[in-house]
Write a structure and sequence with these properties.
This protein has 404 residues and is of the alpha+beta class. Helix content is 38%, strand content 24%. Helix 1 runs antiparallel to helix 2 and helix 9 (309-322) crosses helix 10. The radius of gyration is 22 Å and the shape is globular.
Length: 404
Amino acid sequence: MPAAIRSIETAVPATIVGQAALRDLLHEQEVYGPLGRRVISAAFDGSAIETRHSVLEELGSDAPPRVPALYEASSRRLADPGTAARNDAYALYSKPLLVEAARKALAGAPGLDAADVTHVVTVSCTGFYAPGPDYVLVRELGLRPSTQRFHLGFMGCYAAFPALRMAAQFCEADPSAVVLVVSVELCSLHLHVVDDPDAIVAASVFGDGAAAAVVTAQGGSGPQLDLDAFESTIVPEGAGEMAWTIGDHGFDMVLSSYVPKIVERNIGAAFEPLLAGAGLAVGDVDAWAVHPGGRSILDRVQSALGLDDELLAPSRRVLREFGNMSSASVLFILSDLLHEQGDGHRAQELALATTTSSVGASALGEPAPRPTALAPSAPGRVAAVAFGPGLTVETALLTLRAGS
């Protein structure tokens, strides 16, 4: 059997930050001049984001903040702590979030539990500590000490794809393997109050979240996403248009306004080997998981590939409700697709049970309705894509199955 995602679950911090409220707060900061304030309005109002989640509780209430003190509620001033303080906060806040996502993912994989996990692959580009997130999962989930651990760090928004590809390769090498893939990104820790267009755009789109997937070649009873194929490419332009570097006051994002145009020019070529290898065209794909790097990214991908609005709806929903959570974002979309398939499968079972009950009622002399043929949902082809520094484009082809 091919390696498949048996479960994907997500976790977000409790603090919800409204897009309009954060826009207004930035407008009040003295560091921004007239041009900077115009950029703030344009970036926030045109983002297609309504809410994001943040580990920074002070952004959602007047409660005394934990480290770092990024926002002083009494003065409505955004501070600019150093990188060490921000990274300390990452170590503090990331652990419960990644553990929550991982616990939920294991609980959502029928027939599997923590004792079955053979490999852990963690992903993050928003902080560092050692022993790292992979170690935390082994300890907090009670995994075997012999669990093989890997961490993909500082790769950017596309890093969930190399993690899933690694998981698939482990399962191909050992069909009994069970791989736990966990991404945790705390982008809001790097909110940088500086009158710079790239920093303002980053402040307008990035949010916090975690997602976990259970990957195995062992069969299961529930819905699953077969990991059919992966492709990776570095496009011939844009090396300096998207970057993620470490500064003295957090991590600094370079995100040029040219990135959506570069993606539009190159997205077709990036997908060509993936789809051609499966004998498919764009029109043969049933569902799409496009990394919601921003509204313009989604608009350009949709235009270049000629996709209908409903095919981008899952990506736009994640952008609207959570913003861009870097590597975790595409897993949120795949989680939605997997849950929708599972809900449909359970609805079918309920309908079949209701039909059977109605048929049995005829033995009591009551008229029985004609049974309805409810065949399981046909497998659907899913294409996924994410973008990152380089400019790197990672693509994947999956098959969504309803399960038995």
